[in-house]
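#structure-requests
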Amino acid sequence: MPLALAAPQLLIVFLFFFWPAWKAIWWSFHLVRPFGNGSVFVGAENYLRILGDESFYSSLQATVIFTAGSVLLAIFIALLLAGCVQLNLRGRKIFRHFFIWPYAVAGAALGVMLKFFINPVLGPMAVVNSLWPGLWDPHLNGSEAMLALIFAFAWTQVPFNFVVFVAALQTVPDDYLAAAAIDGAGPVRRFFDIQLPLIAPFAFFAAVINVIEAFTHSFGLVDTLTQGGPGGATNILVYKIFSDGFVGLDLSGSSALSVIMMLCIVVLTALQFHFFSDRMGYER
């Protein structure tokens, strides 16, 4: 009976996770013809071709910049907002719900909206360009495009981190805060000396989730906001897999790239646990 109840969920996991993952691994060792007619086993040739391609390292560098920037920004903003709502400010209960709403907006929808906002001619940033001509043009400047992408993705992760941090701050004993207040510590001093060290495991958890999200769930935002440009400046790995496989019809190369990205996520998560979990008291 328990297995029968879990069968639908297990079937979905198998169809949408294990089967595609297995097909990606299988195709990465074969030369797959884009219009059918079978495939030919080529061993590690696809991996060697990917690792010898300069565009792979450019995409990997863009992915590292995008992931580090968006995760740090998302954690900082969420931590700041969570710390503010813990203060006895008017309307804090309203803000506690208001800050969660952006999590319901899909990345693709957010990309469409932000594409107008970052437009150097038609959007609000046109005012900046009217004062300082040429100051803002993410369509030509790769750094500005990456900056817009980082802010956009961080905006999608702030609500999740906010919920985690609000819940974490509520676990801090009031006695600690009251004792610090009696000793003359202000809200900022209490936050950095007491609250922040105690919620460090929660911050670590949020960082791990954000990194995985940056690698796997950023495609819609990139596709609608920058489409990997300009000049490949925002062509992160998840978008390169799509462009190589479905635009360039290189199914074998994109499959090998998918496997490499999966390994990157596993290695990066393992490194995070190895270097930070013990220091933050996070139980594995």
